[in-house]
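Hello,

Our lab assistant flagged a job as stuck in the queue for most of the afternoon. It eventually completed. Since we weren't sure the result was trustworthy after the delay, we are filing this so someone can double-check. Below is the sequence as submitted and the structure that was eventually returned. Let us know if re-running is recommended.
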Amino acid sequence: MSRPSFGLALGGGGARGFAHIGVLQRLEEFGIRPDYITGSSMGALVAAAYIKTGSAAATWTELDEMTRSEAFRKLGLQLINVKGRGGESFWHQVSSAIQDRIVINLAHSKPGLVRADRIEEAIKYVITEDSWFDSGTELGIVSTDLYSGEDVYFTEGPLLPAVMASIAIPGFLPPVYHEGKTLVDGGVSQQVPIRLAREMGADFVLAVDVGQDINPIADLDNAMAIMSQSENIRSCHYRDMLNREADVLLLPEMPGVHWSAYDQREAFVDLGIAAFDERRVTFENAWHQKRHPVWGRIKHLFS
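-- returned structure --
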């Protein structure tokens, strides 16, 4: 009987996505290389770097160099990191930052606050070739069709536009126009791409969610704050529903950590390791039962 296929689904969350590298490190120590690795937003970039480099350590090196680059600094992520808003939803942080700053004028006249060529220059530090398959692992990337709302899956073809589409944060980065579609961040429709991993053929899916939970907002005294918090609640409930489709879910603890805190990336890797260790027994049992279903049922009868 052949081994069931292993899928790893990496969710979006900006800098918090460095936690994915910690999970990859632990899987390597277990001797597990995923058959499928899927990514949404930052998860897509981590997954693509892993396919390219072949190891967690090399993935860290690639992404660390990218965040240190002048091209990355020019993206201006520090403009979004507003003190006191770390725990709020990603979308609320963006809308709040836009309200607070002069860039409100740009938001009315441009599809994004950062030019497409600048994000492309930064991403090219990692995406240097069209690598979708390496050492037994297949890559899948999800983005969202802005007009239809449908998931758009990438498993082949040009890799750079696929990653750029998956990380195209609405309002901050411009949409990506690809094959007649207008594409934005994969996290809009599928925060953690568990379903993509299943569709690619994964029998077992380990999912890593580095998003934030619902956070109370002290001043719900204006229409924008009320609408943003309501959207936050809706998106968190939808994300939780999708997360239940994973065999095992990892939730690195990052309360109040802002998505653009790339200066904390080393700590995020450690948090990914800690999240894996916390659910290590659960993971081992679930993976063993998937590989040995008959023994698992017998064990359950006598437990």
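-- support follow-up --
The delay was a queue issue, not a problem with the job. The result is valid. The longest helix spans residues 223-243. The first strand starts at residue 6 and ends at 10.
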